[in-house]
């Protein structure tokens, strides 16, 4: 791959290509910033969740989004290196094994994060019914109120009045929620889980494409077949992003939109890479 070809993606001019590159790397920087934003959100939630004890196994449930996003950012940069920055002639030996080794660790972290989303969703279904129908009667007992996914507040005189009469407590936690809020947060939890699983499948398809390209076996027929698979997967991801927007979960919506932009760039990299390789093969 002539990775530093200034003709740019799909034959664009040098000016257009430079703009494309600047936008692409701006998206990558914003995604890196999201790691910090998710960490802040989950640290805030930690003040209301694992307050009595925090074990090593609880890390993934408490910081699933942070670990997931950090691993994906590293993986994204590795895909960028392999599909756009590094020349094919350099992807061998120690460089090749280093790329694949780090990528393997990222996959482990991503699957690990998926189990965290699953554990968080399971927690939302493990409930104890409260024998009261007025949350204000629980004031002074150090309860927290579930407001949204990873969003809690201490139970006080103002928010207890806004809660419904059908109250539940998350098992093992001093956290209460009414039926309406609980159902809303469960939908967010399902969206998190489905989104995580879908991204893993997208990455699997991309990994197959990259490995086939390095071996010179990524044909137009294979690209056409994988295109339909990824269109289906990306449709699910767009639906997840739309739901987060509908549910007013701005950080998840913003993050999902950025990731879709980022992987459009990776898809263009792969397409250009395969196109250049085909042209070189025809020329010889």
Spell out the blueprint of helices and strands.
Layout: H1 14-46, H2 59-62, H3 64-85, H4 93-123, E1 127-129, E2 144-148, E3 151-154, H5 157-160, E4 167-170, E5 175-178, H6 179-214, H7 220-246, H8 250-283
Parallel strand pairs: 2-5
Antiparallel strand pairs: 1-4, 2-3, 4-5
Helix pairs in contact: 1-3, 1-8, 3-4, 3-8, 4-6, 6-7, 6-8, 7-8
How is this structure best described in words?
With 284 residues, this protein is of the alpha+beta class. It contains eight helices and five strands. Strands 1-4-5-2-3 form a five-stranded mixed β-sheet. The chain has two domains: 9-125 and 181-283; 127-178, no CATH class. The radius of gyration is 23 Å and the shape is elongated. The two termini are 15 Å apart.
């Amino acid at each position: 791959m002539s990775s530093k070809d200034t003709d740019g993606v799909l034959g664009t001019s040098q000016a257009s290509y430079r703009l494309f590159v600047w936008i692409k790397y701006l998206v990558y920087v914003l995604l890196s910033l999201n790691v910090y934003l998710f960490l802040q959100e989950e640290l805030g939630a930690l003040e209301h969740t694992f307050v009595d004890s925090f074990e090593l196994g609880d890390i993934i449930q408490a910081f699933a989004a942070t670990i997931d996003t950090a691993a994906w950012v590293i993986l994204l940069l590795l895909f960028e290196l392999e599909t756009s920055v590094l020349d094919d002639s350099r992807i061998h030996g120690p460089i090749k094994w280093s790329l694949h080794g780090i990528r393997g660790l990222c996959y482990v972290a991503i699957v690990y994060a998926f189990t965290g989303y699953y554990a968080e969703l399971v927690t939302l279904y493990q409930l104890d019914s409260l024998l009261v129908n007025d949350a204000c009667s629980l004031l002074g007992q150090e309860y927290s109120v579930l407001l949204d996914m990873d969003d809690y507040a201490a139970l006080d005189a103002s928010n207890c009045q806004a809660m419904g009469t059908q109250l539940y407590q998350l098992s093992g936690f001093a956290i209460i929620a009414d039926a309406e809020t609980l159902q809303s947060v469960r939908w967010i939890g399902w969206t998190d889980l489905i989104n995580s699983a879908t991204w893993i499948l997208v990455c699997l398809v991309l990994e197959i494409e990259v490995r086939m390209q390095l071996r010179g076996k990524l044909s137009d027929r294979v690209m056409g077949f994988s295109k339909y698979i990824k269109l289906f997967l990306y449709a699910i991801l767009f639906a997840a992003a739309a739901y987060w927007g509908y549910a007013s979960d701005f950080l998840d919506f913003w993050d999902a939109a950025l990731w879709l932009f980022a992987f459009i760039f990776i898809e263009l990299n792969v397409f250009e890479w395969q196109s250049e390789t085909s042209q070189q093969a025809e020329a010889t």
